[in-house]
Recover the amino acids of this structure.
């Protein structure tokens, strides 16, 4: 099942991967949008995801980036894929009621794929950028 983006089967695939992972469910990460080689995920603020009740902790943000990048590859691969490496650059504190992570599939290869991810707060400010390298083989 190899998809190309916003079609119904790709949406079902991503929603099933998100719902099937206890870690993802625990973080409250949901699918916001799905397009051609683009996935937008939402993470809603809760006290347990923050450092002090107002600023998101870096760990959940890194997880959001990894999951978003993975989902951008998963649409093409037909299922969740293993992470090979992850880079995260924190540009400003993330605050507000929610974060949106926009993952763009940079390269889909036979064995290796790369996604770039921008994380923005509810005011549209770029807070964090990341890049993930993933296996292109489901597993």
């Amino acid at each position: 099942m190899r998809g190309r983006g916003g079609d119904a089967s790709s949406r079902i695939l991503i929603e099933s991967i998100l719902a099937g992972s206890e870690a993802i469910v625990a973080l409250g990460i949901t699918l916001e949008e799905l397009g051609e080689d683009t996935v937008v995920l939402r993470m809603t603020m809760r006290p347990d995801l923050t450092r002090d009740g107002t600023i998101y902790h870096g760990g959940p943000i890194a997880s959001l980036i990894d999951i978003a990048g993975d989902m951008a590859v998963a649409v093409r691969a037909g299922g969740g894929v293993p992470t090979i490496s992850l880079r995260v650059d924190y540009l400003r504190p993330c605050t507000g009621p929610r974060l949106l992570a926009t993952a763009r599939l940079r390269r889909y290869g036979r064995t290796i794929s790369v996604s770039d991810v921008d994380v923005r707060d509810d005011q549209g400010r770029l807070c964090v950028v990341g890049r993930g390298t993933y296996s292109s083989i489901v597993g």
Notes: The chain has three helices and six strands. The beta strands are 29-35, 38-44, 83-90, 98-108, 112-121, 126-135. The helical segments are 8-19, 22-27, 58-77.
